[in-house]
Amino acid sequence: MCVSLLLMQQDSASPLMEQLIFFHHHALLILVMITVLVGYLMFMLFFNNYINRFLLHGQLIEMIWTILPAIILLFIALPSLRLLYLLDEINEPSVTLKSIGHQWYWSYEYSDFNNVEFDSYMIPTNELETDGFRLLDVDNRIILPMNSQIRILVTAADVIHSWTIPALGMKVDGTPGRLNQTNFFMNRPGLFYGQCSEICGANHSFMPIVIDSVPLNYFIKWISTNVNS
Ligand code: CUA
User: Fold this and answer.
1) Tens of pLDDT along the chain (229 residues)?
2) How far apart are CA 16 and CA 149, in angstroms?
3) Which chain regions cross the lipid bilayer (predicted)?
4) What is the pTM of this model?
5) Nearest atom, ligand 1, residue 104 CA
6) Where are the domains of the chain?
7) CATH topology of domain 93-226
8) Alpha-carbon torsion 163, 185, 144, 13, what sign?
């Protein structure tokens, strides 16, 4: 948590993002240890004038400095692989949201419910309220229940877009003609902001994503007022 604050990282809103942050800190720690060690060695080399005229090779030290980095890499590779498979896991989702990237807005479909679909455009700066987030708020937010497994299906209608929400550890490309799937779980209520992160044209920067994470009964109330019979 202290490292997150130092690096000005956002708090996680899902278990997957929490794991991603842990992994980042783990890799960063190894990186710092290597940098300090190599930095110290290089620094000290400038301030000694010992020369060994007969030193051509050292079997033992060469063995050590070949195998040691390989072992260090394993300590990064194995947790990384664990996370990779964890991110791809689908855990019996209770709601499915389909998000479609367009130039330059997102549209959403709640395929479990009858005809609940809408477009989600960025609010232009001149129409923003005083407490609004510039370039980050949208006219129609995604409403989803907290403490539930949610499946996201991502695709695109024109060019490649990317549905990215940092607080949830979500980053899925929307590709025309393909349907990508992921899964997330929001462990607290709140507004979670994201942006498209695949260079998709002139207004790439202006197709933000906003998820309104609400308790389950609020979600049921919202969806039942929007379902067409
Ligand atoms: Cu859509 Cu960048």
Assistant:
1) 567 777 778 889 999 999 999 999 999 999 999 999 999 999 999 999 888 898 888 999 999 999 999 999 999 999 999 999 999 999 899 999 999 999 999 999 999 988 799 999 999 999 998 888 999 999 999 999 999 999 999 999 999 999 999 999 999 999 999 999 999 999 999 999 999 999 999 999 999 999 999 999 999 999 999 887 6
2) 12
3) 27-51, 63-87
4) 0.86
5) 1
6) 13-46+55-86, 93-226
7) Immunoglobulin-like (2.60.40)
8) negative
